[in-house]
Amino acid sequence: MGTRIGVGLLGLGTVGGGVASILLNPQERHPLVKDLELVKVAVRDLKRPRPVALPDAMLTTDPAAVVNDPAVDVLVEVIGGIEPARSLILQAIDAGKSVVTANKAVIARHGTEIAAAAKAAGVYVLIEAAVGGGIPIIEPLKQSLGANRIDRVSGIINGTTNYILTRMAEEGAAYEAVLADAQRLGYAEADPAADVDGLDAADKIAILSTLAFGGPIDRSAIPTTGISALQGSDVDYARQLGYGVKLLAVAERLGKEGHDPLPLSLRVQPTLVPKDHPLAGVNGVNNAILVEGEPIGRVMFYGPGAGAGPTASAVVADILNIAGIRQASDSAGSVDPLLAADSWRSCVLDESGAIRQRHYVRFNTLDAPGVIGKVGGCFGECGVSIQSIVQFNASEAGAEIVVITHEVTERQVSDALQAITDLPEVSGLAAHLGCL
Amino acid sequence: MGTRIGVGLLGLGTVGGGVASILLNPQERHPLVKDLELVKVAVRDLKRPRPVALPDAMLTTDPAAVVNDPAVDVLVEVIGGIEPARSLILQAIDAGKSVVTANKAVIARHGTEIAAAAKAAGVYVLIEAAVGGGIPIIEPLKQSLGANRIDRVSGIINGTTNYILTRMAEEGAAYEAVLADAQRLGYAEADPAADVDGLDAADKIAILSTLAFGGPIDRSAIPTTGISALQGSDVDYARQLGYGVKLLAVAERLGKEGHDPLPLSLRVQPTLVPKDHPLAGVNGVNNAILVEGEPIGRVMFYGPGAGAGPTASAVVADILNIAGIRQASDSAGSVDPLLAADSWRSCVLDESGAIRQRHYVRFNTLDAPGVIGKVGGCFGECGVSIQSIVQFNASEAGAEIVVITHEVTERQVSDALQAITDLPEVSGLAAHLGCL
């Protein structure tokens, strides 16, 4: 050991405080943590009480003073948001410093620009904390699973929505009531849109996809459905049919080999998960990511998806990685290509509707004889094969018909839904979710 | 990219064939796989049919010819067993070559010797494939979780026994019948002792413990109970009480801070796992490892614990890691301390009986009034608090009493069991398992 690494920190909120706390208390951790020295910290307000006690001289309100401090070897960015985070990251790279960030929004949108700058400067930009909190998932995709042809990455990667969905399922409660409670408890933001509309999950699956398939896609084009329109009755019907409802983010390849660019399907949507599926038991604010590939088969990574401690664990792991590799290498500018994770291929979002998956749909109908037959007939005519069709809540006011299909294309399902909602006995499509 | 890495392979069986297959088919994998060149392969019999076609000139029956080939930069050892594996690994290290091995037996017994030799030579010995098949668990313990004080590593790390236990639970079948079927299907060896007696799991938890806590322990002193004496009735009673039975391997610290040497408890034993615990859903030949620490909380790694493809995925990941770090470093002899994973502390197995856990015990008793009261009384006198006490199968021939305790020390439980088996109404202790 012995090479001291100076760490500069932008932000001393929940995660920043967690990082500082680890660096100031290295005992019982890997001995290399002792070589990480916190030298400068940018905060918004010098007077605010802090979770950790730091000498006054270490604090500044000027982020540039941290970036440009010659004692700072590695810059840790945990202020979040797009700007000034993006500019500060680029400034640090230009100054020849490696960067560790937990900022999924800036990486999902400006990852290509940042990676190009890092490559030109011969430094690392490490992002383990940007997806899955403390769960090691970025590093395994970059290194431990590098021998595989990755076919699919999917998972529960937003803790707030998983907390809400877990309580809806356990208590039979309505979305709005649980959201209000989650806001009160601090599990959801005052403005919950980034979480409940699926935008945070879309940022994260864009990042995982780039690593898994070797090239970026257009973040803004990812089909994204959140949980704000999800009804308690669908969570209940799913449960009766043997499923849980999870907000799943999915990235999968459409072509097995030799496509350039490689066509991918990415999506974020509420999805039925069979009770015996490994993702079904992932509850509360936990996250889990499934990676499928050849020859590995299927591996899953599970743990706390957010929180000061887990996220700080991932941030410090990245700093350690930079410190460790620096001990192996005295030649500036040479980087480990696995850790650097440059793109090595072009990828493109497929818009042909060719992706195949199972669907859950619910219709409001008249409670008349033969409706189930007519609905089933429309599916059949569009080539949609059905796994189950069940009537719920029949009364004089009408009935609800719930259908779970086998794997079919988007196009087949839209055609069938059009034909069914045109039936005089069907008053409307009440829900349309994915199904594993 | 561009630096070619010559790979020598000892063994071309299931795993070796899988490794060769990945190296010969690099397309769609990380581009660095193209830089790995298979140059020499040692086999036992040149005439045997192979899963992969290799040029005759690449094959030899002399392992030393692979170790000493100047074109071999990295030696992959997948022949298994203690000797000649140990000697060949040491020879390669002495020749300045890094080694990748899937051999848990040799690492669990000779890991300290091998690590010392690797340190002296400035090379790596990487062992991702030795535990958990394709699941990334070695690398996360060495790098991604390095910021944590690890408190506990536990899991299902033997696929054969988990396959047998899964079928016993699902079919209500007896151990012997399922074992015979597993042998017929190739999931268990003709001599199943290493698996069913827990020795393989003990090798693996010794390796995980060394990485998690920073120092080796005495492999031969790990208390190890396999599943060969497990009775179907206990699997059934556990199910009725809301538990599955798994062969768990556990390594946990006893002292929180500042102990030297650090006292650890390691054990392998059939253990009741509550139905809603993340490990309860791990079935068939799958493995899963839970890591608990501060500040991460709890993370789990899940996937296929054996098989040619998953194990080869882990072997090639290790070769990639060596290739990647070589690109960052042209200075021979300097290693990344995280990847090298030297020991940095002394650990010792605690033999004081101070470890606390829950217990499941079953007694054969007379079906007489007051027996449950007397059994409960003995536990109480020894300070053992009880979670549940249930009588099964009462008849004229007697009854069975099943007790699940709260967390207590080994010593408290042994005292209570002695007192209970001394009761005239109790004919014997029929089962004693762990309980999460």
Number of domains of chain A: 3
Q: What is the subunit organization of this protein?
A: homodimer
Backbone structural class of chain A: alpha/beta
- CATH-defined topology of the largest domain in chain A: Rossmann fold
State the shape of chain A: elongated
Query: What percentage of amino acids of chain A are in beta strands?
Result: 25-35%
User: How would you state the average pLDDT of chain A, rounded?
Assistant: 94
* Major sheet size, sense and barrel closure of chain A: 11 strands, mixed
CATH superfamily of the largest domain in chain A: NAD(P)-binding Rossmann-like Domain
If classified by CATH, what would the architecture of the largest domain in chain A be? Answer: 3-Layer(aba) Sandwich
Number of strands of chain A: 17
Helix content of chain A: 25-40%
Verbal overview:
- The structure is a homodimer of 436-residue chains.
- The first copy, chain A, has 436 residues and is an alpha/beta fold.
- Chain A has 3 domains: 5-134 and 308-344, NAD(P)-binding Rossmann-like Domain (Rossmann fold, 3-Layer(aba) Sandwich); 138-304, Dihydrodipicolinate Reductase, domain 2 (2-Layer Sandwich); 356-435, Alpha-Beta Plaits (2-Layer Sandwich).
- Chain A has helices at residues 14-24, 63-67, 85-94, 104-121, 138-144, 159-171, 175-185, 193-196, 199-213, 232-240, 308-328, 337-340, 371-381, 410-421; strands at 5-10, 36-42, 59-60, 74-77, 98-101, 125-126, 149-156, 243-253, 262-274, 286-294, 297-304, 347-349, 356-365, 386-395, 398-405, 408-409, 426-435.
- The model of chain A has no long low-confidence stretch (mean pLDDT 94).
- At the A-B interface, helix 1, helix 5, strand 11, helix 11 and helix 12 of A face helix 1, helix 5, strand 11, helix 11 and helix 12 of B.
